[in-house]
């Protein structure tokens, strides 16, 4: 076993030694490390093995040296022999060189002279050559100076470019060329400054001339639009399509431009005719040549943006006159006409994206400015002229390729503003018509006057036509005036719809909507305010009801009027209907309500004149004077209702209903007021004489109700308004408490309408009076009897009998009061 291990160790050491001998020195470390990683004392045996290997190699080296030693000795011997021959050869070379130097000294001197002559000749040729190179440079520089003096800057820049690229590089080594090269950048900057100054003058010039440029462009666009409109009208006439005239008038100048401006000469001016664009072209070329085109473009665009903001800034009082709007639009149009020319005349100075950006910025500002300033306009004519200016403005810029849809959208907002101003204007017109109206039927003396009325208002009544002249038409003067003004409003509203590039269907819808606003808001408000005015009496209110009835009937003619203008059939699916029917119905209902209110107020005024003596012992035997005056007033008032329109079954039923409602309302209010007067909490005592007097007044009211002041009531319907008062007074005058208490709550009760609380309240006033009488008799009558009737026993018996009757009656009243209170308490508990 030990022998095998020793053999393995020897074999491993042999392998390691071979690796050491054959491996690079840098990789010996890992090989040697394996010696120390093996068995203990292995390195000692490896060292022994290594020593043996070293000794073997030493012996091999020694053998090799002994083998080559003789050859080395022979080589050294031959080298010593050659050294002597070399010294001899060196001496011979030195001697030959000395003889050669002595022979070439004269040749060298002559050669130096030839060289000097040749150098002079060469220098002269070089000088001539350089002078020939410098002369063109100087000539070009002289040409540059002349070009600068004559302000031909673009040619000067080309000359500088030639100097720098072609001439100066040939003679750049000379000082004058260096000075010249240093001067050229300064000349370029000077040219840039001069051209920039020209550009600023150009910008200032176009800013001043933009107004004139825009005016010219808008006039040309208007002329083109007028020509197209004339052609379109001819085509329309040939197609027999109905045209409308504004109340027989044709509008020739709805363009925001005065007729004088349309009559100017036919010479077509362009932006080039009004502004010299050469400075901007020249400056663009100069900066392009200088390689600074981007700087120039940025500067130009920046300055134009600033000018755009200045142009878009309106004057504070622009909304006061149309001239302010015209100048504003002219400047904007002039600005963008110039930009459009620059866009197409130059390559890249401005781009379509830049002009679109400018236009979008301007469009937003324009819309904001117009929206603000148009809101200040209160004159519809000014708003209409503004609309025409906006249309021309939009058409002009659309011709230059700018999108203007938002401007036409703005026109719808302006249209709303225009309608608002029209509504305000017509509100004043309606108020003036109502103030000047006499609220009486229109008298017509002859056929001409009758035709004059029906020519302004569509009135048709067969019965009135059969009547002889003079006669009266049921409506007042305000009705045909209102109708005519509504038509004028439609004409005025139609003016705004012109040139909006809208279909007749849309125009028809606009007209109907604006007319609806006029009827439902303006006219309705004026009617409501008129009805509420204090000075409008019952007669005027009745006439207002008549007027609204006829205006309501005329609404269908207004629809036909709009249809004739737009030629749009009313049967179209989306056709808007006029809401005049509801407007006039509401006004009529308000007038009816005001009639009822004023009647009640008048009744209250008469009631306030009542002066009952509630402690009177006996009645006067006749009705109170205030009540008779009130009844006479009501009779005369209800006669007015016979004038309400009844030319048709509907109107007859309507007029009868108004009269009946007013009469019933007046009777109910009168009955309620009388009942409140009788039950007033401040009234503490009521005598039977006062009740009798009150009963006489109620009888007059009942007689008035039964006299049928307004026809159409069935039976005693109107008298039922006083039934509560009648049963209450009958109960007290007959003193039929036993029947009342026995039949209370029965449907067939004689005093069914007498409420226990009402009867109790009135009875307590009688109780209070009875107690006062008893106290009077108890305190004063005995004393009076003792003084005046000491010896009159018969009279004492009479007074005693009176006192007994009073006590019995008082007990009866107390009993009735207790029963009534129990009924009242029972009702409250039940409720």
From TrEMBL:
Q: Give a GO biological-process term.
A: vesicle tethering involved in exocytosis
Keywords from the UniProt entry: Exocytosis, Transport
Cite the Exocyst complex subunit EXOC6/Sec15 C-terminal domain residue spans from the record.
Answer: 407-765
Which is a Gene Ontology cellular component entry for this protein? plasma membrane
Q: Function of this protein?
A: Component of the exocyst complex involved in the docking of exocytic vesicles with fusion sites on the plasma membrane.
User: Family per UniProt?
Assistant: Belongs to the SEC15 family.
Put simply, this protein is called Exocyst complex component
Organism annotation: Triplophysa rosa (Cave loach)
């Amino acid at each position: 076993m030990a022998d095998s291990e020793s053999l393995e160790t020897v074999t491993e050491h042999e392998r390691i030694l071979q690796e050491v001998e054959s491996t690079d020195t840098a990789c010996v470390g890992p090989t040697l490390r394996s010696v120390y990683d093996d068995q203990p004392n292995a390195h000692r045996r490896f060292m022994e093995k290594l020593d043996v290997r070293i000794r073997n190699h030493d012996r091999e080296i020694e053998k090799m040296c002994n083998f080559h030693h003789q050859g080395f000795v022979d080589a050294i011997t031959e080298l010593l022999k050659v050294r002597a021959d070399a010294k001899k050869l060196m001496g011979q070379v030195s001697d030959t060189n000395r003889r050669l130097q002595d022979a070439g000294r004269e040749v060298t001197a002559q050669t130096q002279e030839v060289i000097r002559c040749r150098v002079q000749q060469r220098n002269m040729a070089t000088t001539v050559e350089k002078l020939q190179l410098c002369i063109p440079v100087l000539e070009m520089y002289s040409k540059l100076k002349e070009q600068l003096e004559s302000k031909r800057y673009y040619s000067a820049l080309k000359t500088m470019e030639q100097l720098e690229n072609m001439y100066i590089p040939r003679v750049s080594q000379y000082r004058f060329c260096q000075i010249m090269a240093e001067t050229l950048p300064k000349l370029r900057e000077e040219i840039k400054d001069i051209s920039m100054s020209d550009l600023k003058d150009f910008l200032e010039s176009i800013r001043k001339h933009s107004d004139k440029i825009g005016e010219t462009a808008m006039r040309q666009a208007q002329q083109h639009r007028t020509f197209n409109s004339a052609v379109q009208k001819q085509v329309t006439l040939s197609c027999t399509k109905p045209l409308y005239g504004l109340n027989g008038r044709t509008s020739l100048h709805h363009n925001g431009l005065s007729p004088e401006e349309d009559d100017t000469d036919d010479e077509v001016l362009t932006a080039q005719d009004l502004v010299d664009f050469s400075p901007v072209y020249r400056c663009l070329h100069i900066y392009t040549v200088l390689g600074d085109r981007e700087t120039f473009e940025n500067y130009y665009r920046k300055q134009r943006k600033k000018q755009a903001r200045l142009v878009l800034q309106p004057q504070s009082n622009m909304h006061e006159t149309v001239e302010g709007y015209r100048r504003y639009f002219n400047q904007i149009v002039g600005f963008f006409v110039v930009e459009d020319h620059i866009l197409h005349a130059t390559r890249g100075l401005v781009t379509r994206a830049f002009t679109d950006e400018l236009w979008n910025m301007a469009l937003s500002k324009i819309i904001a400015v117009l929206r603000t300033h148009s809101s200040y306009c209160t004159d519809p004519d000014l708003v209409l002229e503004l609309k025409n200016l906006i249309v021309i403005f939009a058409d002009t810029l659309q011709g230059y390729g700018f999108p203007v849809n938002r401007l036409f959208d703005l026109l719808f907002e302006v249209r709303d503003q225009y309608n608002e101003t029209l509504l305000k204007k017509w509100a004043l017109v309606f108020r003036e018509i109502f103030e000047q109206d006499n609220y009486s039927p229109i008298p017509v003396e002859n056929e001409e006057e009758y035709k004059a009325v029906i020519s302004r208002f569509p009135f048709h009544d067969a019965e009135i036509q059969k009547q002889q002249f003079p006669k009266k038409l049921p409506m007042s003067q305000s009705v045909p005036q209102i109708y005519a003004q509504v038509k004028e409003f439609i004409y005025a509203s139609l003016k705004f719809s012109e040139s909006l590039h809208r279909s007749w269907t849309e125009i028809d819808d606009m007209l109907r909507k604006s007319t609806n606003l006029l009827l439902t808001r303006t006219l309705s408000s004026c009617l409501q305010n008129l009805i509420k005015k204090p000075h409008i009496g019952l007669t005027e209110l009745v006439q207002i009801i008549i007027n609204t009835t006829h205006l309501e009937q005329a609404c269908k003619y207004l629809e036909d009027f709009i249809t004739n203008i737009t030629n749009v059939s009313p049967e179209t699916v989306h056709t808007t209907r006029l809401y005049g029917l509801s407007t006039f119905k509401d006004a009529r209902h308000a007038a009816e309500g005001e009639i009822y209110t004023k009647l009640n107020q008048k009744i209250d005024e008469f009631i306030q004149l009542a002066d009952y003596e509630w402690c009177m012992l006996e009645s006067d035997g006749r009705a109170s004077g205030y009540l008779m005056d009130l009844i006479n007033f009501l009779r005369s008032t209800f006669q007015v209702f016979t004038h309400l329109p009844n030319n048709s079954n509907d109107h007859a039923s309507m007029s009868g209903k108004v009269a009946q409602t007013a009469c019933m309302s007046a009777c109910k209010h009168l009955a309620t007021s009388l009942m409140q007067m009788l039950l007033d909490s401040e009234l503490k005592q009521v005598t039977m004489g006062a009740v009798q007097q009150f009963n006489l007044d109620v009888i007059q009211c009942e007689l008035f109700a039964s006299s049928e002041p307004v026809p159409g009531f069935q039976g005693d319907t109107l008298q039922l308004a006083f039934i509560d008062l009648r049963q209450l007074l009958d109960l007290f005058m007959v003193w039929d408490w036993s029947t009342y208490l026995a039949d209370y709550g029965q449907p067939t009760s004689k005093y069914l309408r007498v409420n226990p609380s009402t009867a109790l309240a009135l009875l307590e006033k009688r109780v209070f009076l009875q107690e006062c009488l008893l106290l009077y008799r108890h305190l004063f009558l005995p004393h009076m009897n003792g003084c005046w009737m000491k010896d009159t026993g018969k009279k004492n018996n009479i007074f005693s009998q009176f006192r007994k009757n009073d006590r019995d009656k008082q007990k009866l009243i107390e009993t009735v009061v207790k029963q009534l209170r129990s009924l009242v308490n029972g009702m409250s508990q039940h409720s």
